[in-house]
Amino acid sequence: MWHSLKSVIIFGFSGIPLIFLIRMDVIGLLPNSIMNTIIGLIILVIWNEIHFFMVHRLMHVPFFMKHVHIVHHRSRIPTVYAVYSFHWFEALLLSTVPITIAPIIPLSATAIFLFPLVSILLNYSGHCNYRFGKGKAPGFLAFGTNHNHHHSKAKRNYGFASGLLDRITHKIFNKS
Q1: Where is the Fatty acid hydroxylase domain positioned along the sequence (predicted)?
Q2: Helix locations, 60-163, DSSP H
């Protein structure tokens, strides 16, 4: 619970640099239309998948696994209580999703504001210890099952909600 509280505080304060960059006109905002919000949320979810995969792979480098990511992996069977149970450094890295994409791709303020809600719902789904489709769910729906496997073995399934980046990197780095 202590690690989760620290992570929630870090995630909460991660909006401050974002607001600062918006006020300094480093980040431009699109109008808050329904279409801009939907497209922005799609962009943020896709970027979150890429960002999370990169951070998560880094966390499995032996040094970071031993000193940082081990906090999250103490939950061998993921539960909703493990959603925010991170070392403060990992929480800091994971909290940078919007600020790393918004200077490059303009988004609506509503999309940026709603993204944490979408993210936490996906995160709860991945940590709820429920295997969608009896553990045989196809593609995107398999993320709960994939994340259960990841927590129990601490190998493979480094993506947030998709196994796509795992499959791509496996094909690139494991050519025979």
Answers
A1: 42-169
A2: 62-64, 70-73, 88-94, 97-101, 109-127, 143-153
CA pair distance 33, 106, nearest whole angstrom: 13
Q: How many CB atoms lie within 10 A of CB 123?
A: 22
Could you give the 3-state DSSP secondary structure of residue 76? coil
Q: Which of 6, 1, 23 is nearest to 92 (CA)?
A: 6
What residues does 108 pair with on adjacent strands? 30
What gap in Å lies between CA 157 and CA 170, rounded to an integer?
A: 11
Q: Which residues contact 106 (CB under 8 A, 6 or more apart)?
A: 27, 28, 29, 30
Let me know: does 127 contact 83? Beta carbons within 8 Å: yes
Strands (E), the chain: 29-30, 107-108
Tokens 């505080």, residue?
Answer: 9
Q: Please give the single-letter amino acid code of residue 99.
A: I
C-alpha–C-alpha distance, residues 5 and 86, integer Å: 9
The answer to whether the predicted template modeling score (pTM) of the entire model surpasses 0.90 is no
Residues 6+ apart with CB under 8 A from 79: 127, 128, 129
